[in-house]
Amino acid sequence: MNNFSFYKDGKGLYCLFFIWLCFSFSSVYAKNTVRHSTIFTQQHQIQGTITDGLNPLPGVTIAVKSRLNSSTISDYSGQYTLFSAPNDTLIVSFIGFKTALIPIKSRTNIDIQLLYDITTLQEVKINAGYYSVKESERTGSIARITSKDIETQPVTNILATMQGRMAGVSITQATGVPGGGFDIKIRGQNSIRTDANAPLYIIDGVPYSSEPVGSFYTGTTFPTLTSPLNSINPDAIESIEILKDADATSIYGSRGANGVVLITTKKGKAGKTKFTVTASTGTGTVTKFIKLMNTQEYLDMRRQAFINDGISEYGISDYDINGTWDQNRYTDWQKKLLGGTAQITDLHASVSGGSENTQFLVSGSYHTESTVFAGDFLYRKGGSQINLNHQSEDNKFKLTFSAGFNRQDNNQPSFDFTYDARALPPNAPALYNSDGELNWENGTWDNPLRNLNTEFESATNDLTANTTLTYELAKGLSVKSNLGYTILHNDETRIVPSTIYNPANNVSSAGSAIFLNNTDRSSWIIEPQINWKKDLGKSNLDILLGATFQSQESQSLVQSGTGFASNNLIYNLAAAKNVRVLTNDQTQYKYQAIFGRINYNLKERYIINLTARRDGSSRFGPGNQFAYFGAAGLAWIFSNENLLKDSSWLSFGKIRSSYGTTGNDQIGDYQFLDTYTTSSVLYGGNTGLSPSRLYNADFGWETNKKFEAALELGFFQDRIFVTGAWYQNRSSNQLVGLSLPGTTGFTSIQSNLDAVVENSGLEFTLRTSNFVKGNFTWITNLNLTFANNKLVRFPGLESSAYSQQYRIGKPLNIALLYDLKGVNPQTGLYEFEDLNGDGSITFPEDRQAMADLNPKYFGGIQNQLTYKGITLDFLFQFIKQKNRTYPMGPAGMMSNQQQRIAGSWREQNDIAPYQIYTTGYNDDAMTASYLLDESTGSVTDASFVRLKNISLSYNLPLSLKETQCKIMLQGQNLLTFTKYKDGDPEFLSYGFLPPLKVITAGIQLIF
């Protein structure tokens, strides 16, 4: 097993470089300024506290009207102090609140209560990647959540924080096992290849690779490979922006075709040093089980199956029914194997503060989570975050440094018990003997807890660091350099010891095995930029030019070892008799680009935003390595027109539209080259090489053309704010493997296919301030998405390898199925449409019925109610979709079934929804059962409405001025309303643990 070395390959040098930057650049390099102060007569000190009526407000700006350099900022306790004359007026301003003018009138103590102003939310600047823009002036489609939304959710993965909260963003949880992954699609599936639809992730300006770091040899607990996104700590995040349309994503060129996820970490704020400590504990349980047969129903099914098959005597191995097992015994195996309670603990602490010129934040977090499976398994995650902001006295030089380190340790069974929990007969034997040892019931069954001995372990270290240097050369003209570095190391092991077998079989440690996966990934990025902003009187011009230089190196080593002298040596690969190298890859990805942006704003009414990028990628051959991408965005803020400017009912109105192109190079490295792979077959005792890929000089970029039109309206001071957007994205020049004749020696060649995939849809958002008066506020947020996906063009589809996977004019995510007619009342067998009329059900001729497995619509509705110190926040997520039923196999065999199968056909002329039982000897019934799993009968309504999140908090009314204490109660996935009968309706692949229902209680102390 490789040992992680921080200084390996000069990796420590980069971090030393960052430290040098932090200490070598300071305000001494900036222009010195001389402070001038004017002495006003009769000045005296003013002090007080700024609140929202209940809580103190830190960071509020208090200035003296018509005075220069006479302002201050309230500290964390909301207190402020400044000097003024008795007849002066204070101007008090803070984002999200109405600006207040307060005459001093010779007072020395002035406490001020600010009122909420929903309209000013349009002035909030949002992160658009290389630049920031006011919410009211953006021309692109950007969805956003902040730390306030994240803090209410007891989750560990950043994708979980966004579920149900953003229009156009579909997120599905893959498993409830700790450390499992999520699937995200931003405005649908653009690429035919299912592994090429991931968005680009940017953390504080640094690209973060989401490519899996796991291996199928080790991560058998999960339906998807281990994702590095689990390393990102949600507690450290200030905001997440999702860039969706061409205007927002085109500046990222080839990396923005599937959308961009911008993650901004928390920063320090000027003021007194502030300490925050948050601790919580909770539990997690499975959301929903399948209703399975009890013992009586199960045995009735088994007996009827023998009768149906004409078998009068039970076989020697029919232990469940021949009297070997207790026929009065009942075990709910779902509760036994999946019904445990996961224990969850979280601890987060931070310290922040600083002066007006230098601010800092240091935070740390620790999370532990056990599993609902039997056994002592634990997922641990800890990390720290450092942020430093500095600016010179003259505000010309600015430095921002951020670094985050996270470590995960995951120990889980390498076997998901969900399948056994659903399939085991309800009268199967007890798990343990009276002496506490595993019960093998005289070799009549394989005890499911044997798989507790086959363990999965992983350890992941992840570091992301960023430094941004900015210097103002002249008024409006600044240069900037963004430097970033990431390094990730992942070790995984899976052991299969001989102890998983019945001791009576005398399987020794010579049959034990271990699988190991070691992955290393590092990358660096340098992005020099120059920005010019010019106020032209009635208009503003903003020009940005920049370049990107990026390199990423990855190494992967997967090995296996079998045959050990003792199971005590199973983790020592050198002790294995047979050692194999299954995979040994080393890849390098290089990327270069130049980009630019021109933004012109006329009279704060007419806005044009132009972006362009020239990309170069090492993943394509000579002549195709470079490509151009660009977009144009337009906006008209018609509410600023003279006719509507003073409207009493329309507070904001904007029409925006965009069109442009982005690209996609998510095809892997070296795909255009002739490549060779080591052969597992020895020749003369030597390992040989075999060709594995053909050279393709024409291998080029995928291109995604995006169009959007949107309307934004605010009514009654934005107390009602609604947006509607229509989009159409067309992805062409698809990167796929084209089939080749077997005579070539290759099954396919990587190439560009003239296929076009279209995603279109409607997105709606609604924000209403239902009640804002006194101490009570009630705010509602709704998002709703209608999405459509279809394959527009695919030349030669009928003769390609994809002929039985896709259809022109239909979505990519379809299932081609046999068409179930029902159960024949005479034979008791499932019947299917014989489309070609040949008298038999054959593939592919008769498997042509289509089922669309894409969501028809999805969204969420959030309500936040606040009364004095009490805040209630809850979110309902909803989705309209179809999905697969859980396949239990032919009913009547030695495996449990859904309770509804008890209504199966028994005799001629029965009208029943389910076919005849069989023990496995009725070939026609076995065939029909197989066809059912590939028919329209296996697809059902899997729509659901879920109470995704609920949070109740209370700020304790402490008498201490600079101390706050909040108690919290939070829940995730608490209620699910669905017609889906086979467990939880949210899954990517059936047979894995569903999402957990989580309840936590916590306390937060700020001082």
Automatic annotation (TrEMBL):
Localization per record: Cell outer membrane
Domain annotation TonB-dependent receptor-like beta-barrel: ranges: 407-798
GO CC annotation: cell outer membrane
InterPro entries: Beta-barrel_TonB, Beta-barrel_TonB_sf, CarboxyPept-like_regulatory, Plug_dom, Plug_dom_sf, TonB-dep_OMP_SusC/RagA, TonB-dep_OMP_SusC/RagA_CS, TonB-dep_rcpt-like
Keyword tags: Cell outer membrane, Membrane, TonB box, Transmembrane, Transmembrane beta strand, Transport
Domain of life (superkingdom): Bacteria
Residue intervals of the TonB-dependent receptor plug domain: 136-260
A Pfam family the protein falls into: TonB_dep_Rec_b-barrel
Membrane topology, record value: Multi-pass membrane protein
Keyword RNA-binding: no
Keyword Transport recorded: yes
Family label: Belongs to the TonB-dependent receptor family.
Record-linked NCBIfam families: OMP_RagA_SusC, SusC_RagA_signa
Annotated protein name in UniProt: TonB-linked outer membrane protein, SusC/RagA family
Source species: Flavobacterium johnsoniae (Cytophaga johnsonae)
